[in-house]
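Input.
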Amino acid sequence: MELERLLDQLWQNHRGKVIGVGAGLVFGILTTALGFWKTLFITLCIAVGYIIGKRVDENANFREMLVRVLRGR
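Output.
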C-alpha cells in the first residue's frame, strides 16, 4: 500500500524524470547486450514508429505524410 502511494506520487510529480530514467536504463542494458550501433538502430526504429503512431492517432493522412517525408518537407 505504501509502495503504491509512493509510486503514484512519483508518477504524478516527476513523470518526465521517471520516463527518462527508465529510457536510460533500457538504453544502457541494450548497449551492453547488443552494442552501441545496434542499440542506436533499435532506438531510431522506435522513434520512427512512435511518430507514425502519433500521426495515426491524430487521424493524419498517412499517404500525405509519407509523400511529405519522402520529398523532404
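DSSP finds four helices and no strands in the chain.
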